[in-house]
Amino acid sequence: MNAMNKTKIPISIFLLIGIIAISFSAIFVRWSDAPAAVIAMYRLLMTNALMLPFLWNYRKEIARIRLRDWLRTAISGISLGLHFLFWMDSLHFTTVASSTAILTLEPIFVLLGAFLLYGHRTSRAALIAMCIAIVGAICIGWGDFQFSGKALKGDLLSLVGTIAVALHMLLGKSLREHISAFVYSFFVFLFAGLVLAITNVFTGVSFTAYPTKEWGIFLLLAIVPTVFGHYVFNWLLKYMKASSVSMTVLGEPLGSTLLAYFLLGETITTIQLLAGCLLLVGVGMFLRSNEKK
Fold first, then answer.
1. In angstroms, how far is the first alpha carbon of the chain from the final one?
2. Which DSSP symbol is given to 148?
């Protein structure tokens, strides 16, 4: 996995891979009948199992990690675990389009946090581009927003999960300056998985009483949106601003909505397609304004 650091492949290719990969997350969750905390726990711990054979190669780096960085990594992992818990649970109460559209608020939280914590500033052009992209993303799910009943609960859960992942992203940007993507990702996934395991112990849900189909979904979540999605984004944090990585995640509502149309039978409107084009234009403008070559 170190080879990624030496690659000549354009960053945009990795961005595209990451966006497509995380877009499958909502689909796999909707296919599952297991509790959200169980889905998230096995998604992360199975990812750790896939990465474990390579961990020995990083033993010297792990030994050099300071206590302060271990604490920050733990907080980042806990935040990621809470994000999965709340966001996955939201999909049981609201539509894929609505839940993922709320995730588009992540760049706002990241941008604000980057300014307050690190003093990072953003150009006016980048802010305008962000607004364009967020308007497009919100329009994708606008017809599915409901301000009462189960749908409202799902939307609120998605919002809390968005705040949690923004904190995870901010901590990751700082830690990735001196910790490799592999080591950072492994322990963040581990801390997140353990938090979810503790949650499952206290709520009394079963750890094993699931059919073969569910275990297949857990594995798909580990491989596709976690390894090819979150791991890739963690790697990109060393080379891009946290706000830029967060902005690329805005492609998820469009990707998830298109996949939900083909795989779940959810409807898609002309307005949603036009909003998706607006979103992509905004993201492209933001990356052009916010990132140096």
1. 24
2. S
- Encoded tokens for 289: 């304004």
Label residue 80 exposed, middle or buried (CB < 10 Å: 0-12, 13-18, 19+). buried
DSSP string, 58-70: GHHHHHH--HHHH
Of 234, 112, 247, whose CA–CA distance to 173 is shortest? 234
Handedness of CA 37, 38, 43, 44 (dihedral sign): positive
Q: Which of 12, 20, 58, 13 is nearest to 227 (CA)?
A: 20
**Stated length of the chain:** 293
Crossing angle of helices 106-118 and 124-142, rounded to 10°: 150
259: Cβ contacts below 8 Å, ≥ 6 apart: 23, 24, 26, 27
Rounded Cα distance, 112 and 251, in Å:
20
pLDDT at 69: 96
The 10s digit of each residue's pLDDT in 31-51 is: 999 998 899 999 999 999 999
pTM more than 0.85: no
Contacts (Cβ under 8 Å, ≥6 apart) of 53: none
What CA–CA distance (Å, rounded) separates 43 from 37?
10
Q: What is the pLDDT of residue 158?
A: 84
Give the start-to-end residue ranges of the domains of the chain.
10-290
Q: Is 159 exposed, middle or buried (0-12, 13-18, 19+ CB in 10 A)?
A: middle
Tracing tokens 């909707």 back to the chain, one arrives at: 30
Average model confidence (pLDDT) for the chain? Answer: 85
